Sequence to fold (424 residues):
Amino acid sequence: MTGAFGSVFCDQLDTLLAWRRDVRHFSPEPLADGIVDVLLDRACRAPSVGNSQPWRFVRVVTPALRSAVAASADVANSAAADAYVDPQTRLAYRALKLHGLREAPEHIAVFCDAGAGTGAGLGRQTMPETLDYSVVLAIHTLWLAARARGIGLGWVSILDPAEVTRLLDVPPGWRLIGYLCLGLPLVPADMPELAIQGWQARIDPHSTRFIR
Amino acid sequence: MTGAFGSVFCDQLDTLLAWRRDVRHFSPEPLADGIVDVLLDRACRAPSVGNSQPWRFVRVVTPALRSAVAASADVANSAAADAYVDPQTRLAYRALKLHGLREAPEHIAVFCDAGAGTGAGLGRQTMPETLDYSVVLAIHTLWLAARARGIGLGWVSILDPAEVTRLLDVPPGWRLIGYLCLGLPLVPADMPELAIQGWQARIDPHSTRFIR
Fold:
């Protein structure tokens, strides 16, 4: 593939981008054997600064650990609700389902190994945050590869990263970038759930463009 | 598209992931009229925390600004080379071409508008860095949409973000996440240039997976 991929593929890719949603409503049905490995292989195709590949994927399968993470998310979510001063906003926030940690058949915690020597520091002397960004790129790659196969992903950021890192007992120097739920979505949608629920609409893409 | 996209598309998506490279060798040929707008539209389909859509795209067209950014990158690159203590590593670093800022027909600086009220803080009380991560997701979306159309993208992180932010005179509170070159690649490849040049090979994907 030295050139373009053709308009049929580009249209399908656009459709994938539209249907790639953050999923919080999962069927508890297990995913097909081996599919998580396929998805993690694809995630490792992501770009990374200096080709450092600093992503580390922790599949969380122990029921007690899954429950502890879900409990941590509920505590953080409750605190987040309380932080909204306006009672109506607080009520609207509380009405949202923001994670599917108890139903999703798969939990994957994604870390950045800040101590990895790979890449030898190339590309991150002035912008060291690009190491974390590389892990974000791997998460997005995983997300698209999953959705293409009909599998939904939800990125849970409403939890205490220090607590989750401690729970999972990972090597020192690993930073939690994202905690992911994967599973079959109960209600596929091409609109963000937060837009459907009236929390935040899509903004005009033109309003994000500037010229200098 | 309520379910999977089918195996033909999945295979093509895998091929796209393999051929999506960081490009530093561009043809100076201008891109087709309107294509940058198409790509930025696609980028706005990226996921974002609380549907906050905090990405801001600045197309840098003024020749003096483009030159100033390229000069900034060269200064940062030279300092980065000097930071390698081992003379052989320093020599190997200096031999790499790490940006195509002078040839690429398009420069796009991508910022995070930290002051945007969109999303009302949802999802980022415990992990506020997810706002920046949302912009990274938009950059990756742009990258894939571009490569699908035969257009290469190079992410330049070897520059002084404060200096570039000042040069582009953007509103207060905007943080530079990435500075991108876009154009037709001179040499399409399915291997990272840093792997081809012997700087950093691909690591075994299995070494990045753990179970808890």
